[in-house]
Amino acid sequence: MNTELSELNPISDGIEDRLGRSPDAIPRILILGGTGEAAELAAQLASRNDLEFISSFAGRVSCPKYPIGVVRVGGFGGIEGLISYLIMESISVVVDATHPFAVGISRNTEAACARLGLPLVALVRPTWQKQKDDLWHEVITYVDAAEFVNKKRGRVFLSIGRQEVGSFAACNDAWFLIRAIEAPTGQLPQHHEILLQRGPFDLKGELQLLRDYSIDHIVSKNSGGSGTYTKIEAARLLQIPVVMVERPTKHTVPTVDTVGEVVTELAELLTRPVQDEKQWKDVK
Hints:
Blueprint: H1 13-18, E1 28-32, H2 36-45, E2 52-57, E3 70-73, H3 78-88, E4 93-96, H4 103-116, E5 120-123, E6 136-139, H5 142-152, E7 155-159, E8 175-180, E9 192-196, H6 203-212, E10 217-221, H7 230-238, E11 242-245, E12 255-256, H8 259-270
Parallel strand pairs: 1-2, 1-4, 2-3, 4-5, 5-12, 6-11, 7-8, 7-10, 8-9, 10-11
EC number: 1.3.1.106
InterPro entries: Precorrin-6x_reduct
Organism: Tunturiibacter psychrotolerans
């Protein structure tokens, strides 16, 4: 059962006092974003007048797609910097809707919220699941993926973003089609072509791409979601093997799968009374 956000009230005086909020202040939510789910959440919250939210981007892409509402860009400076920001902005709840492979910010966020006693809602989209006709070779690291495709000496579609391309720099026996939003800046494999494109991608286009470049293998991380899943569907139809990089462990706290669950969690958290002032941890 969905809870209407119009029912939200400010969280209890206990944590408001610690973070410098006035008793009648409306809740402020920090959305750690950069994903489609974060943008969807911002769109759902934008029409509310009983809460405020800020969407935060890491700033790794020079021309990101901004969601509706207030946006900040850039890092926080580690755990201590994030703690300072949360206090300065009087944040009531943090929503971590970052990419499933963005481990560092998620771990820092858990630590910062634990130090402040702030509620944290962690949204992690479900992984892609291997289907009957999929030809997956699952690996733990990008280095494992690089070693595998280099031994095959074929034509590889490298679709992992630009940050991890350096893991394939020593691959001299394979050819790579590297697709990214912006050009990689680090070391690249000897034989390659760069294709600058931003998703989502349709199935027809992905099929044509794989055929045009005579791709033998695809390297992908198991990001989940629909935005880039069409390459997996295309690989299935063309019977092209996919080297799938498994997700790292991102959270130690419970997670939710959908934006709807985040909205429900927010409604519950922001109306929950503080049972015991001792539950709020001192900032050290």
